[in-house]
Amino acid sequence: MELIDHLMLGLSVAMSLENVAYCLLGCLLGTLIGVLPGIGPVPTIAMLLPITYVLPPVAGLIMLAGIYYGAQYGGSTTAILVALPGETSAVVTVLDGHQMARNGRAGAALAIAALGSFFAGCVATVLLAGFAPPLAEVAFKFGPAEYFSLMVLGLIGAVVLASGSLPKAICMILLGLLLGMVGTDVNSGVARYDFGIPELQDGIDFAVVAMGVFGFAEIMTNLELKDQRVEITGKVGSLYPNKQEFKEAWPACVRGTALGSALGILPGGGAVLSSFASYTLEKKLSKNPERFGKGHPAGLAGPESANNAAAQTSFIPLLTLGIPGNAVTALMIGAMTIHNIQPGPQVMTSHPELFWGLIVSMWIGNLMLIVLNLPLVGLWIKLLKVPYRILFPAILVFCTIGVYSLNYNVFDIWMTAAFGLVGYVWAKLKCEGAPLLLGLVLGPMMEENFRRALLLARGDYSTFVTRPLSAALLAGAAALIVIVALPSIKKKRQETFVEEG
Amino acid sequence: MHIRNKQDFWSGVMFLVLGLGFALGATKYSMGTAARMGPGYFPFWLGICMAVLGTGVSLGAMSPKAEKVKMEKFDWGITVILLGSVALSGLFMNYLGVYISVFLLVFLSSFAGHDVNWKVAAINGLFLVLFVWLAFIKGLGLIFPLWPSFLGN
């Protein structure tokens, strides 16, 4: 069995002392930022990216991945106990999770959330191991035209499935692609849009943009709100769900896992969308939907499983095609390129220890997270009492140190501040940052493949539609736009995101 | 014409201006042909696409069917304090070293909060300097200018 061999290889990599330690560190950090409202995985991973320079690539990626799925666990703790989503994907968890806590079942709610996440994490890891190799096979058949079309589909998918205005999101992608053009053009050696500044000739680092637009801008919008006093609901109580709760939770957990895994693979899917989708599904299927929003275990178990499953399966397009589906995986691409690993289908064959080590580490990480989140929940509750005025200067410091250590150049600090300013303006204009980041990461790759495809076709644009695979991918992208633009769906889409709020 | 959705309108204007700017900038580089693209080709068309879409967004915001959305208030005080202290710490990094810059960054940025207490800010600053020393300098061995350059060493 090849799969078993691969998993054994992964196990041997992931179980090395160093990698276990970094996995634990990632999970701890992930839980920490998940619990704390006001800081999410994107700025955290961006902050830590430069630090992974000094780590071996496997250890670095294991840690960054741990932050992402760890945040899904941590986010639910805050959502249940304080009714504040520690993480955007935990918005739905607040609805029924916090109600359960109010009904005196906080411990049970935490246990359901953690166990549901764990189950989802295990299934998603197996899926990742099973599905990635065949998908990578397909990817090897891709030429530049297919890659270009795939990126178009990925980018469109990312905005279609996200909330907010579609044309604005597409504009943000284009802007991201354009920002990706800044710097030296690899084909001609011409420095584009550098305004005579030598630092700009290397291009704009996406860590700079991520920290400015997600980190700094978020602090500013948070500070505008009055300091949110955190009130913790009652005692945690017994950590064991009773029979009735268990019976209601497990089918939701299974459905949530399936839904989350499927949506996670799609570009733009990821944790947020799948938790919303799962909640809607559970409510539709339930015999007594009126109990939702009043502490129904299914309304908690479904979304919690779904968001964790999606967080993990979103690594499938990243590891097989080299295409990121959301902002976090876009940063992971960056982490790979830092270590000179070209993301794409060849990773599996050229760096098998990295590929399988990462997958197995996810399973180990999930196991750690269960321990971190259930018995140690008291510790995290204490953390919630740290006021924001102490917290935000710390975030600023980590961001500043993080960008400075990218190139040891203060220019990067100023760039980050500048992106913080535009990020703040964008937040006010309701222009989303995630599509911009995706565009920025994909920009150079997209141009490269676009140029190469047309070079091979001698300038004939029809190459994108005459090659069947490429045509299918583009048709998919077009279909997505049309579907979303249909009035009935448009209304439904708005409802899904506004509803339950 | 009446601007109903102010957020969308101004976003559209921004995309239009930036798109035209990028497209104009691209004309400085060689365009090439579709088969042999120069460095200007791809960004030029991206810029044009963005400008067109941006115009669409702005026009949509003026249509009578558009939702009425006002601009949200900007809080420039917070922005100036926060980004100003970050920019200053960048300025100080090379001259005063990482410890003093980090302390100043924490101390100054704390004034962006609601309930400012300079004692808390100072203690927080000292704590974070300690943390930076422990985690980044000792732990990860990153190389920073540590102390003011005029003190020499």
Rg calc of chain B = 24 Å
Give the overall silhouette of chain B: flat
Distance between the termini of chain B: 68 Å
How would you spell out the order of helices and strands of chain A? HHHHHHHEEHHHHHHHHHHHHHHH
Strand content of chain A: under 5%
Main β sheet profile of chain A: 2 strands, antiparallel
Order of neighbouring strands in the sheet with most strands of chain A? 1-2
What distance separates the N and C termini of chain A? 48 Å
| Rg of chain A, Cα atoms, Å | 22 Å
> What's the SSE pattern of chain B?
HHHH
SS strand fraction of chain B: under 5%
By DSSP, the count of extended strands of chain A is: 2
Counting copies of identical and different chains, the oligomeric state is heterodimer
Any idea how many domains of chain A? 1
Give the uncertain stretches of chain A in residue-range form. none
Query: Structural class per helix/strand content of chain A?
Result: mainly alpha
Structural class of chain B: mainly alpha
Major pleated sheet of chain B: none
